């Protein structure tokens, strides 16, 4: 009896696999590292075969730990970052790197090499941009594809397949080139709500008239929660599964996390008032709406990117956990930002706040746009700002800087939420998942700074859970995606804002907005 599913999450630095039963219980989890090459500033590249091997090793390790036989697994699901994979007509690796090494065939999501192309497409004002916040980020695929065709024409001439990373994984697993509705709608400017999803005039503006031919792309997409096919014999051997296992349409990793925390929320008004906050290296806020509510600087709305009949909208920050790592690494009293060092800093921050003043280092103010501003400014050129630095190089000095960086990150989320309110979104509850749910400083701040209830699902991994939910639907364990979400949802814990701190954070927010204005004034001086 096939009553289990396997979910695989391809992150920036590792592949993780989890084995779930039909109740949503995670029986075992394993991960394996992924290598990344940074040959130039703003360039980041993966070797897709290394990614596939990492996934296979993680799946085999998780299956062994779970003690589940291969013939008990109904389906395998993948989620991944929105990285771009290139292959030649025979499916072999082909370089996307200025080094010319064919192993590096994948442009990583955080790669910003295509900023100029993103600016160029954004300036066109094409109607397709109404479904991506009025502009394009260099993290999306169209600017990267433009860069690839312009800067590496020999690669473009050899290309026979172009994949979002999640679609590459399902191709490797099945040998079938079907594409997910989630990936194409969210990252390739495919309009799933139109009879013709690809907009030919937009492709022409981008100089990508031959994209469908070069990329092996079709007009059809596979919705989340539906199967693409069964595992190939070769892939089954590599993964330690069998060919009776179905492979379901892939997801963008943040959207898997959003479904993992919102899948159990009742359809209707409760879902409309809820937003998923996925906090990790970067941060995303994701919600599902019954109608399209376009707005500037938010990604989407994307039709049926996950849930049938629902529009998905996303706001985000390009560097959050990565920013805290950077602060720890660059400070004289810091070091390599391992989990234990983050924990020591957080504990000392709490001690300093109790001993000295709850408004610790209130004269230290930060704009957290060290890797550009994804939302609500949609400005990849934006840069971070720190006001109030001293000569203090002590560990306590690091703790104060770390604390105020946490405050700045959450002020950025408040800024996004308030911007979204202009487009008729109303959120009462933040459903938090990812690494930030384990950081006590951020957990407290998300409630106190935004003034909203924070709900944390009691699951070890909401991203894997969301992918497992879609796999369970595609594997036939449930009749549809909504049923899988409700049946597999985790219990949760609630955190409420402390009204006594609102005055302090309101002041901080006014300063945050003032710093944005002052940064603009500085940038306008020539």
How is this fold's topology laid out?
Elements lengths: L3 E7 L3 E8 L4 E8 L11 E2 L1 H19 L6 E8 L3 E5 L17 E2 L7 H8 L18 H11 L1 H6 E6 H10 L6 H7 L12 H6 L5 H5 L11 E4 L2 H7 L6 E3 L2 E2 H10 L6 H4 L1 E6 L3 E7 L9 E5 L7 E7 L3 H10 L8 H17 L9 E3 L17 E3 L7 H27 L7 E5 L6 H11 L2 E5 L4 H13 L6 H8 L3 E4 L6 H22 L3
Parallel strand pairs: 1-5, 5-10, 5-11, 12-18, 18-19
Antiparallel strand pairs: 1-2, 2-3, 4-7, 6-7, 6-8, 9-10, 12-13, 13-15, 14-15, 16-17, 19-20
Helix pairs in contact: 2-3, 10-16, 12-14, 13-14, 14-15, 14-18, 16-17
Q: How would you summarize what this structure contains?
A:
The chain is an alpha+beta fold.
Please provide a written account of the structure.
The chain has 526 residues and is of the alpha+beta class. The protein has 18 helices and 20 strands. The strands form four sheets. Strands 1, 2, 3, 5, 9, 10 and 11 form a seven-stranded mixed sheet that branches. Strands 14-15-13-12-18-19-20 form a seven-stranded mixed sheet, sandwiched between helices. A four-stranded antiparallel sheet has the order 4-7-6-8. Helix 2 packs across helix 3. The model has no long low-confidence stretch (mean pLDDT 95).
């Amino acid at each position: 009896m096939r009553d289990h599913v396997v979910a695989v999450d391809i992150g920036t630095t590792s592949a993780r696999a989890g084995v779930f039963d039909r109740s949503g219980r995670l029986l075992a989890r394993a991960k394996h590292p992924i290598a990344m090459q940074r040959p130039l500033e703003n360039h980041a590249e993966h070797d897709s075969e290394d990614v596939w091997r990492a996934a296979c090793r993680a799946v085999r390790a998780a299956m062994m730990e779970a003690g589940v036989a291969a013939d008990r697994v109904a389906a395998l699901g993948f989620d991944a970052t929105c990285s771009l994979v290139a292959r030649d007509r025979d499916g072999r690796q082909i370089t996307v790197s200025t080094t010319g090494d064919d192993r590096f065939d994948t442009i990583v999501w955080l790669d910003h090499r295509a900023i100029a192309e993103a600016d160029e497409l954004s300036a066109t004002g094409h109607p397709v941009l109404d479904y991506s916040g009025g502009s394009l980020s260099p993290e999306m695929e169209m600017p990267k594809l433009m860069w690839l065709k312009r800067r590496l024409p020999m690669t473009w001439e050899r290309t026979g397949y172009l994949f979002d990373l999640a679609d590459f994984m399902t191709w490797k697993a099945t040998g079938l080139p079907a594409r997910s509705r989630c990936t194409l709608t969210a990252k390739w400017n495919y309009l799933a709500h139109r009879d013709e999803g690809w907009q030919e005039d937009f492709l022409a503006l981008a100089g990508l008239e031959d994209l469908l031919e070069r990329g092996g792309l079709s007009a059809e997409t596979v919705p989340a929660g539906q199967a693409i096919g069964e595992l190939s014999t070769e892939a089954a051997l590599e993964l330690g599964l069998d060919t009776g296992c179905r492979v379901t349409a892939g997801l963008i990793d943040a959207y898997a996390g959003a479904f993992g925390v919102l899948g159990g929320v009742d359809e209707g008004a409760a879902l409309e008032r809820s937003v998923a906050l996925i906090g990790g290296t970067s941060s995303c806020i994701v919600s599902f709406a019954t109608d399209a509510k376009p707005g500037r600087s938010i990604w989407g709305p994307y039709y049926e990117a996950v849930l049938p009949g629902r529009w998905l909208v996303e706001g985000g920050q390009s560097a959050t956990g990565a920013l805290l790592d950077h602060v720890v690494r660059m400070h004289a009293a810091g070091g390599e930002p391992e989990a234990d060092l983050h924990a020591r800093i957080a504990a000392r921050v709490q001690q300093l706040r109790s001993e000295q003043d709850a408004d610790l280092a209130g004269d230290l103010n930060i704009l957290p746009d060290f890797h550009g501003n994804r939302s609500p400014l949609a400005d990849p050129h934006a840069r971070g700002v720190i006001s109030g630095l001293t000569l203090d190089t002590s560990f306590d000095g690091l703790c104060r800087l770390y604390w105020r960086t946490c405050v700045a990150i959450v002020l950025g989320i408040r800024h996004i939420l308030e911007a979204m309110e202009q487009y008729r979104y109303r959120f009462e509850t933040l459903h938090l998942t990812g690494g930030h749910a384990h950081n006590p400083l951020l957990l407290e701040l998300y409630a106190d700074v935004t003034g909203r209830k924070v709900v944390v699902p009691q699951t070890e991994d909401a991203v894997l859970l969301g992918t497992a939910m879609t796999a369970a639907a595609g594997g036939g364990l449930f009749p549809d995606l909504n049923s899988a979400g409700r049946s597999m949802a985790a219990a949760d814990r609630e955190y409420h804002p402390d009204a006594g701190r609102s005055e302090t954070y309101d002041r901080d927010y006014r300063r945050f907005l003032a710093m944005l204005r002052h940064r603009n004034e500085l940038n306008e001086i020539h």
